[in-house]
Input
Amino acid sequence: MCAQPPLGASMQVPIVYRDFRYQNPADFEPSGAMGLTKALKGLVQTTLDAAGKPVFTGLTGAYITSAQTFAEWYRDTPGTNHTTTGKLTLWNTGNGTYVNRWGKNGEQWPLTKMEYFCGGMTQAKLDATGAPIPCTFAFGTTVCDTDLAMGYKLLQCITDPMSGQYSAIFQTALLDGNPFFFPVDADMFTPLTERSTATVGPPYSAQFIPEPGTPAPMHNFSFTSEVRYWFQYDATKTYTLDFFGDDDVWLFINRKLAVDLGGIHSSDGGSVTITPGAGTAMFGLADKQVYEVAVFQAERKTNGSTYELTLSGFSAAPSDCLPICGDGIVGIGEECDDGANNTGGYGQCGPNCKYDQFCGDGVVQPQFEDCDDGVNDGNPCPSGCKNLIIP
Output
């Protein structure tokens, strides 16, 4: 008897990573692949192959050497790639939608902006003690006042040591997804000499800027990821799957292509929504049957790596399946099952398919037992929980 548990604060989906060396094959960090911003559709066939992997169509312009090198992206290939496995944590946004995030504990990425004039120490408003209030201006309004009125959060007020002028950093939004998705940094298949710094751009930053840090972190680029997630299709529900990131991304439902974002490109997004009853026509789904979602991604070009996967309408955990007490079958988790006779009593099966009072439970039942030490090996209580009577 199976039941779906309540939605939780997070869910984890299995993910496989494959680390590749620089230009081995030449599909990774290909020479000449500069200034590419748009996704290229049609690189893979519309259905997965017999092994459940995407198949290259041969379309040119994608900097893919051949169907053979493409097949290595999602297959263990000694000497060409190195495979590690893990879990991708998706966090509940509060409405049953799950998405990965930048922080290890589900923290969202703070979108910030810099304001360069917020008053100054000699022009600031004063508090009750007569001290200047940072990032205020006594003779009018500044852009900082406008930002505060819009609900932006003041993260830092900066005082210029020479002029005393205030500037400020404001948090304008919190974004899902990970703008620095580097899951194979710990994999030494790629040596440190092939690591690079990273940048972040829209929507996580208004302009392309280096990753914060002194010195800037060095990352392992040239890798692929493969997510597989099973779900039971309910024809009365709505399902939405969104992806935003770079580079190549393909999302399959029931082995059929649903999102096509191939090629080396800047962060881009794709989405598919299955409305009630539409699953059959779109992806051949039958009500109450179980199907697989497969997401294939490749990071092939420095200097950025973003990844945002959103699942909406999907349960957070596999079903809990328990034996049915009273069906006469002793299942996993049951000690006994006498069918309709699970009424309990000494040496009998109880209502919860657990043994009732019995010899060996460590409790002396005076009506039936002389002793019961839970071991009953004759030292001192014998196996039958009855003292031996010697004539």
In short: The radius of gyration is 31 Å. The helical segments are 67-72, 143-149, 279-283. DSSP finds three helices and 17 strands in the chain. The first strand starts at residue 2 and ends at 3.
